[in-house]
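Appendix C reproduces, verbatim, an entry submitted by the partner laboratory led by Prof. M.T., so that reviewers can inspect both the input and the predicted structure.
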Amino acid sequence: MKLSEDLAWRGLIKDKTFADAGWLDQPRKFYLGIDASTDSLTIGNLAVIMLARRLLEAGWGTVLLAGGATSLVGDPGGKTEERELKSKEEIFKNVESIKPQIEKLFAGKPHEMVNNLDWLGDLKYLDFLRDVGKHYPMADLMQREFVGTRMGEAGSGISYAEFSYSLLQGYDYWWLFKNKGVELQIGASDQWGNILSGVALVRKKEGKEVHALSMPLVVNKETGVKFGKSEAGAIWLDPVKTTPTQMFQFWVNTPDSEVEEYLKIFTLLSKEEIEQVMEQQNADLSKRTAQYLLADKVTSLVHGGPKGGIASDITKYLTSQVSITEASAEDIRMIKEELPAVSIGSRSGIWDPSIVGALVAARLAPSNSEARRLLESGAIYINGQSVSRESFEEGDFQNGRLLLRRGKAFKDSALVELE
């Protein structure tokens, strides 16, 4: 299948400056800009990074730009209020933290990483106004959606710094065209206005035509929030912020109505492989075949090596698909890396069987009273079974251990062991 056909089948083409998507089938060189306002990417970033990976696999030269300079200003897109400025030291640290995440996602495939601080950092203000600002009519800039939102009656206003952000991004494209031969910029649809800034600047300064491609913004259809966000916050690619098991479980919980779309966006599975697994999925939805494949592929891609398999194994214990009695010493060690562990009992022979105490000790409840309320509401589970009593029983423990959970989210679990 041609690249253009594959991207269309996956639903990854929203806006484009070229009339015929077949233009994509002749590999050239493209770039993707990556924000460095935080020290980790999220699975929201992952969507467009996977688009970049597909172009790379199709033979496109790949330039990945870390926004070491633009992140010092802050992208106003999608923001209702002014961003808090980050220090240069923090942005530098963020860039360095993001690099290894990107390297894993591209798995040794040929690509080049650049930092726009290298060319924007020493740019003189008067030169910028003459060489760049002169090419941007105010009427065009005022029509940008983020400007209209922020300047409207209910808006919070916008600083000159954030107003100028799209000029900096336009300069990036021009610089990469001149110095790296880049002819395409890609991004999510919420970046479309910024991407077009570079297309216009190259045309005006060089008299040459370059192009842009955006993919639809992935949105949680249940909440309407940008994908990767949840009540507890973002789903991070950093394993310290979001463990491999937590990530695995996030994908396992994908609604049946969305799992095929996510397989197309977030995995490298072929059309034939996705159609095959969806046949199995639709034959028996209770097995969640597609969700488990999605979780395995994405977790392995993000964290590399055997992490996806380990996360899958731990999830089987947390979901009671496999009894905790079957856990090996290595499995228990991995579970303790993912979950809080609580020991109950006493070497002196005095045993406190309180579920309430264990919930508080494991930080699944902030207080004894809240722990009792959770028990009364049926929100506490032992080895996957809801309980309302306040004390453990001998039968709860399997080989001297059990899994205690609050609510439906398996990340809110703890391992409880007898001393």
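The chain has three domains: 3-222, 243-319, 339-418. Additional entries are available on request from the coordinating office.
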